[in-house]
Design a protein that fits this description.
The structure is a homodimer. The first copy, chain A, is of the alpha/beta class. The first copy, chain A, has a single domain, classed as Class I glutamine amidotransferase (GATase) domain (Rossmann fold, 3-Layer(aba) Sandwich). Chain A has eleven helices and eleven strands. In chain A, the strands form three sheets. Chain A has a seven-stranded mixed beta sheet, sandwiched between helices. A two-stranded antiparallel sheet of chain A has the order 3-4. A two-stranded parallel ribbon of chain A has the order 8-9. In chain A, helix 4 runs parallel beside helix 8 and helix 8 packs antiparallel against helix 9. The termini of chain A are far apart. At the A-B interface, helix 1, helix 2, helix 3, helix 4 and strand 4 of A face helix 1, helix 2, helix 3, helix 4 and strand 4 of B.
């Protein structure tokens, strides 16, 4: 490769930035296009000086890493937000697959007034947290004042066990959604459920959709679209088995069998919370 | 709630497991349904005793956590695989968003013969790794024998800088795909590109699609579908801005401007590798 070729390639981004990149957007559709003025406004909002949004994401042993890292990706992409990963101590915890996650703040150090309280899922961690008074007290306290009270996957069962979903429409991992009524919540078969300031997501990967939506609520649609493109969120699942309808009864039944003891434990923990908090 | 109601709800999963759950799969389609025999065979294969698949996923400072955690979710769901998170030392590294990731093995401890070598992306970490001889030597060595040589996002630039993509079709994050030819690779505008034993994914969230596809290659389609349902991968992006066509020229140009210095650094590092390894 000679110098001319190098200059061509290394300069591609410059050219695109200065002149627009017609090549890069051949199938662009007319209408509903984001304008420069919209981008300028979004960026100005994002960079405005002042107190940052306070976001706390709970960590706990045997949680599911992707439940957290999906939303984290979008929330940490907000320039005007501080994201805290909170747990009882600052010691690393071990999640599913023996993946190690490291807290940045203890529950005691977590800001008292939050813009977002987020709880991930993951068994058997969820069932333990549903009975952990220190964690439930923390979730109930921060959740009582947080602007948004949120979860992904079985995290909604922890919100529910802290008394935060009574009378709210909510969702959970498909295999545990039927436990929500025990906690006074109204289960909804939807990937993301918004009811007033509660936003709950379905299982694991729904955290990507959830994170992008929540980022939009905390900034604006233009900024969220920038986050979507930078993270190239243009999903193309190689199989069609992402919900029980598509996966079919055999796979669904097999997984339900594998999850029997989890389901039973979570239901028991939910009943204990129901009795303690008079949820139903 | 009385005892009868509790029994009903806590027993729901049992009933579903024993009798099939007609409620759970109302829209199930005829044909192409997975059978019990297929599930039994997949599970028997997954649990067969013997040496486990050896999977090494590279960690490095300033990498993008979701690039790794997406694929990790599916690969760690293979019952017959050991997943190693490898780096120069066992000290935790700090990724994008100040997210801390903890290695499980040093490069020296990493098994020599791998079933999968995986490299995530993330700037400015990628540019540094493209010039890090210790890392490049490791990647070139393990990649020379690995059954699958793989990446997500800008990770393909590290594979390329190690000389592993010369003459291969590959992809990268959309904003750096044009650097691949400097490394002797043929860039393809596709979310996942498979060429012989090289499998490369596009930006960040493509790691979910990539991870599910790779899990299928390492097990079978039935097992992969079970992984898809347990992770509820039924994406519903709240916006349509996940590729440059959909996001449109204004957002694309804005992000390209933000990524100018990254692009320039990566292109320079690619040229150095090209010269060192005679890639073009």
């Amino acid at each position: 490769m000679n110098r001319r070729q190098f200059t061509q390639i290394a300069g591609a981004a410059v050219a695109a930035a200065l002149h627009g990149d017609a090549q890069a957007a051949p199938r662009q559709q007319a209408g509903a296009q984001v304008t420069d003025a919209q981008v300028d406004k979004s960026m100005a909002d994002a960079m405005r000086p002042g107190p940052k949004l306070q976001i706390a994401m709970l960590l706990y042993p045997a949680m599911y890493p992707l439940d957290l890292v999906g939303p984290f990706t979008f929330l940490s992409g907000l320039m005007n937000a501080e994201v805290h990963l909170v747990w009882k101590t600052l010691d690393p915890i071990v999640g599913a697959g023996r993946f190690v996650l490291t807290p940045t703040k203890t529950l005691a150090e977590c800001p008292r007034d939050l813009d977002v309280l987020f709880v991930p899922g993951g068994t058997p961690g969820t069932e333990h947290m549903m009975r952990d008074r220190e964690v439930l007290d923390f979730v109930a306290d921060r959740g009582s004042r947080a602007k948004y009270v949120t979860s992904v996957c079985t995290g909604s069962l922890i919100l529910g066990a802290a008394g935060l979903l009574k009378g709210y429409r909510a969702t959970s991992h498909w295999a545990t959604r039927d436990i929500l009524p025990l906690l006074g919540a109204v289960p909804v078969d939807q990937r993301i459920v918004e009811d007033r300031n509660r936003i709950t997501g379905g299982g694991v990967t729904s955290g990507i959709d959830f994170g992008l939506l929540l980022a939009a609520r905390l900034s604006d649609d233009t900024y969220a679209k920038m986050l979507q493109l930078i993270n190239e969120y243009d999903p193309r699942p190689p199989f069609a088995a992402g919900n029980v309808s598509q996966a079919g009864p055999v796979i669904t039944r097999h997984l339900q069998t594998m999850l029997l003891s989890t389901h039973r434990e979570a239901a028991s923990a939910a009943l204990e919370a129901q009795k303690r908090l008079h949820l139903v």
